[in-house]
Amino acid sequence: MRKKCEACGEPFEAKRSTAKYCSNGCRVQAQRGAANSPHKGTSTVVAFELASVPPGEDRPRRLGPLEQQAQAELESFGRADTLAGGVVLALARRLDQAGPMDTGSGFAALAKELRAAMTVALAGAEQEADPIDQVRKQREQKQRGRAR
């Protein structure tokens, strides 16, 4: 018996008269409420773009708050133009664009991956000395000199 899938709208060969969906994926999609969403029939896979400006577009994109912070930190270490820096920016961009279809566990996984990618991107980079740390180091050296 030929039926139309209630989730994706594609025709399928139903094994039972009560069948509503062509596959488990469509059944789960409908169960989660995505069947009636404006994104019906679209893929939920997200492609990460590494370019800051899409090809053919003259105006720069507006950066989200997390992406701005990640870019500023990468630039302060001179790592914004590296492959690892691009991965960090793509992950930050994706986190900034999180929407209602994203799950909490998915968001947490992206945040964890962003932390790991930032560690890789900044590995071996020299951090500017903090003035307070410099003063503390000088004081410790003076105290060691007096103790001798």
Tell me briefly what this model is:
By secondary structure, the chain is mainly alpha-helical. Helix content is 47%, strand content 4%.
Describe the structure.
There is one protein chain. By secondary structure, the protein is mostly helical. It has two domains: 2-36, no CATH class; 46-148, no CATH class. The protein is built from five helices and two strands. It has helices spanning 24-31, 65-76, 83-96, 104-122, 131-147, and strands at residues 2-4, 11-13. A two-stranded antiparallel sheet has the order 1-2.
SSE blueprint and pairings:
Elements: E1 2-4, E2 11-13, H1 24-31, H2 65-76, H3 83-96, H4 104-122, H5 131-147
Antiparallel strand pairs: 1-2
Descriptive terms for the model:
148 residues, mainly alpha, 2 domains, two-stranded antiparallel sheet, 5 helices, 2 strands, 47% helix
> Widest sheet: strand order?
1-2
Number of domains: 2
Task: List the uncertain runs.
Answer: 43-51
- Tell me, rounded to a whole number, the average pLDDT: 80
Q: Helix proportion of residues, in percent?
A: 40-55%
In terms of quaternary structure, the protein is single chain
User: What is the approximate shape?
Assistant: elongated
SSE order: EEHHHHH
Structural class label: mainly alpha
* Rg from Cα: 25 Å
Major beta-sheet overview: 2 strands, antiparallel
Secondary structure: number of strands: 2
Counting DSSP H or I runs of 4 or more residues, the number of helices is 5
* CA distance, first residue to last residue: 94 Å
Strand coverage percent: under 5%
